[in-house]
Amino acid sequence: MPGIAVMALFAAALPNAVVLKPVANMYSRPSEDADVVSQAIYGANVALMEQKEGWAHIRTADDYTGWTPLAALRPGEPYAARGRVAEVESLFAHIYREANVTRHAPLITIPFESRLEVIAEPKDNPRWIEVRLPDDRAGWVQTGDTAFDPKPLSVPEMLALSKRFLGLPYTWGGTSSFGFDCSGFAQMLCRRRGVNMPRDAQPQADWSGMIAVERKDLAPGDLLYFGSSDKKITHTGVYLGDGKFIDATTFQTPMVRIDDLNEEHWTRLLVAMRRPK
Q1: Using the 8-state DSSP alphabet, how is residue 127 labeled?
Q2: Is 0.90 topped by the overall pTM?
Q3: Which among 72, 44, 76, 73 is positioned nearest to 60, based on CA atoms?
Q4: For the domain 3-75, what is the CATH superfamily, name and number?
Q5: Closest Cα to residue 242, out of 135, 127, 128, 159?
């Protein structure tokens, strides 16, 4: 049986938990003094691999593992896995206790791509959607912050989407609109195209779902990889065309920004170029 199929069966057999925080950090070991390796966003279903002294060792949908506090999770049935589901399309969405923005502060603010179980879509108030939150509370989200059944994007649509994130902070281990790291940002953009590639930059460049391209053949949407060699990749970005690329970087200004591939800093470090198959 192929390895991916075995992993899918193994994950399916593990207990499920749902993320209750806008973003749950995943640590390399069960301590907040450990390094953050990735994140899981609000409403995401994760596999519970192990529990230890208030911590859970979890596996996310992209097969990434790490430790997160149990308080950030609700063990139980999968959330937003069937029925009517709204997905956050704004960079952030406020969830309110009622269909009104002025009466109370938001219950919670959640990031782009968060999925919500829909309870009702009032025909007399189409501006609002009533949702069931992962902790079983009811809430209201504005229709304009969401989409139903978003379709895979074309390359031009994906590149247009990428520019909405300009200026967001670089965050090590980040996978959300609260802050991305380089590979988390590239992974999210490819996911919007319907391409589910690995989480980290080196595995992305090595992934069988990519084909190598030469610099002279670069096209918008290609992935750029930087490092000391093609086996020691430390950074990635998405090619926009005309020598420009977009990336979440710590170089000069730590944010999502547009960089020039012809600058000496980037030309010196460019070691691989890939195109999703």
Answers
A1: T
A2: yes
A3: 44
A4: SH3 Domains (2.30.30.40)
A5: 159
